[in-house]
């Protein structure tokens, strides 16, 4: 016979404990389920707003430095030459006004070693970054405002249209400095030449019976300069010519400067076109301050040729 299953009898206290534990589990499971469902299905719970990152501020436009640069005058310099080389806005007049206490009352009289202040050009401030705008809808090609304006301008005023296109296409340029030398390598003996007594004029006041050079209007202290590259062959007092400088030019001709108040070069010195040779004056046989200028075929008196015609033949406008 099969063995009968043995019935296990538990004490009363054990049975009560088991029943209580089972009941507690049965009660806790629905509660947990309900809370979980409520957490996942709560309607209308707005999401916590996310703070937008602030747009970075546009960098401040840099302030251009406004300092004065120093320039030391060397032999051959003039205010006009320095202003041209340093691109001084306003030219030599502005440079002189800025350095009047150094130069003195005569702007034509400057000396090697003088320290001049060159006003620095202020760099343009960087434009502020434009505020960002929402993207606009794409415009139709046939209604673009730029296109309408361009077509209208071209149809009515073609000259203005050409000028507008040139302004947009070309970058802004600094104002061009006044040229100091002709393309041929020759310049006038003064920076701003004004013709005086002409070459060849007859008269008893001249030993040869005629004027052997070209006079240029110049107050005492006006810088005179080499009309071309050359070598100094005279730098001394020449009697009736007063203080004179003569240079032998590269083509074999000789350029003579007479009645100078100051001689700024020495014999044997090589000079370049535009270099200052001295200062005009009224030394020698004169009635007033001016520059007497000659071109000669040889180094001595009597070999003169028309100096204005010579300079014009080498591209100098007089």
Short key terms for the protein model shown above:
single chain; two-stranded antiparallel ribbon; Glucose Permease (Domain IIA); alpha+beta; 318 residues; 18% strand; Membrane-bound Lytic Murein Transglycosylase D, Chain A; elongated; disordered N terminus; nine-stranded antiparallel β-sheet
Report on this model:
The protein is α+β, with helices and mostly antiparallel strands and 318 residues long. Among the domains are: 68-119, Roll (Membrane-bound Lytic Murein Transglycosylase D, Chain A), CATH 3.10.350.10; 214-313, Glucose Permease (Domain IIA), CATH 2.70.70. Helix content is 25%, strand content 18%. It has seven helices and eleven strands. It has helices at 12-41, 79-85, 91-98, 100-103, 145-156, 158-169, 307-313; strands spanning 68-72, 115-119, 214-216, 223-225, 230-237, 243-249, 254-263, 270-271, 276-280, 291-296, 304-305. Strands 3, 4, 5, 6, 7, 8, 9, 10 and 11 form a nine-stranded antiparallel β-sheet that branches. Helix 2 (79-85) packs across helix 3 (91-98) and helix 5 crosses helix 6. It is elongated. The termini are far apart. The model is unreliable at 1-5, 19-52, 57-67 and 143-183 (pLDDT under 50).
């Amino acid at each position: 016979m099969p063995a009968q299953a043995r019935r296990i009898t538990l004490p009363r206290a054990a049975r009560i404990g088991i029943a209580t534990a089972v009941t507690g589990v049965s009660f806790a499971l629905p509660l947990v389920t309900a809370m979980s469902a409520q957490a996942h299905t709560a309607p209308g719970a707005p999401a916590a707003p996310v703070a937008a990152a602030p747009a970075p501020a546009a960098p401040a436009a840099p302030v251009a430095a406004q300092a004065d640069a120093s320039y030391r005058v060397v032999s051959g310099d003039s205010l006009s030459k320095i202003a041209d080389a340093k691109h001084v806005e306003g030219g030599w007049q502005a440079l002189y006004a800025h350095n009047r206490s150094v130069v003195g009352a005569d702007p034509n009289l400057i000396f090697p070693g003088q320290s001049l202040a060159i006003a620095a050009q202020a760099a343009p401030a960087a434009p502020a970054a434009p505020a960002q705008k929402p993207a606009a809808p794409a415009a139709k090609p046939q209604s673009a405002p730029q296109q309408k304006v361009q077509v209208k301008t071209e149809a009515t005023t073609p000259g203005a249209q050409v000028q507008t296109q040139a302004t947009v296409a070309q970058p802004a340029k600094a104002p061009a400095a006044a040229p100091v030398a002709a393309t041929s390598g020759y310049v006038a003996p003064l920076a701003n030449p004004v013709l005086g007594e002409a070459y060849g004029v007859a008269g008893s006041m001249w030993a040869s019976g005629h004027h052997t050079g070209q006079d240029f209007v110049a107050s005492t202290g006006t810088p005179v300069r080499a009309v071309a590259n050359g070598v100094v062959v005279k730098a001394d007092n020449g009697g009736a010519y007063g203080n004179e400088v003569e240079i032998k030019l590269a083509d074999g001709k000789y350029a003579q400067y007479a009645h100078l108040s100051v001689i700024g070069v020495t014999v044997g010195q090589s000079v370049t076109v535009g270099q200052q040779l001295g200062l005009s004056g009224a030394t020698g046989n004169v009635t007033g301050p001016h520059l007497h200028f000659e071109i000669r075929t040889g180094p001595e008196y009597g070999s003169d040729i028309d100096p204005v015609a010579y300079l014009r033949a080498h591209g100098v406008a007089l």
